[in-house]
Amino acid sequence: MSRFRFLLVLCSIALVACLVACASARRTGIMVAQWDPPPKSAESTQKVMIAWESESSLTGSMTFTLGPGGQRYVGQYLLLEKTVSHMATQPFYDAWDSASFRDWGAGGIDPWFEPGWGVSVWVDHYDGRVVSTLQGSRGGSARCHFTLKQTNLGIEGGGTGQCQVSDGGLLDVTF
Fold it and tell me: Domain boundaries in the chain?
């Protein structure tokens, strides 16, 4: 009887260890995007794959390349929640507030960001969504926002979104 209990305890410990390892394992995936290049570009609309890798339930990295032999964009993403610290959100907020994104939108009004918001209003506006900032290999930049199908599942649960590229291109994303 004690040998049976010993094996039961040993199996229980192994099961718990496996569950912890699986829960903390990095996840990876692919998002599919339709890239509309800027009007001045000779490129045509094309499909782009955005690769992502989670670092935690709230953070991770993503990358994509635009056009054949084109610029490669690499950056971080963050699932915004009201409980996320301002220290975690500040780098994303600062990037979205940068001059490279100021003139986007109709009449110079940026529909994605209002500089007067401040980081608290920005987090409230995008609460439950994923935001991302990426730097290009040739000096460009991009920012993305994604609406998740199920916030508790993160990016892995799927959703839709958009990415704006500093040259005026736009990606419509489904995952």
Answer: 26-174
**Rounded CA gap, 70 and 140, in Å?**
11
Whether the per-residue pLDDT at 167 is higher than 90: the answer is no
Tell me the backbone φ, ψ of residue 165, rounded to 5 degrees. -105, 145
Q: Is 51 helix (H, G, I), strand (E, B) or coil?
A: strand
Domain 26-174 has CATH 2.40.128.120: yes
Comparing CA positions, the residue from 170, 172, 161 lying closest to residue 77 is 161
- Alpha-carbon Rg for the chain in angstroms: 20
Q: Which two tokens stand for residue 138?
A: 């040739």
Task: Measure CA of the first residue to CA of the last residue in the chain; give whole Å.
Answer: 52
Query: Which tokens is 90 given?
Result: 């500040």
**Which are the contacts of 122, defined by CB distance < 8 A and separation ≥ 6?**
89, 93, 96, 113
CA distance 40 to 36: 11
Query: Are 133 and 95 a contacting pair, CB within 8 Å?
Result: yes
Six-digit token pair at 45? 């609309």
Q: For 61-80, what is each residue's pLDDT tens digit?
A: 999 999 888 999 999 999 98
Which among 123, 160, 165 has a CA at the least distance from the CA of 145? 160
Cα–Cα distances (Å) from 35 to 43, 45, 56, in that order, read: 10, 6, 28
Answer yes or no: is pLDDT of 9 > 60: no
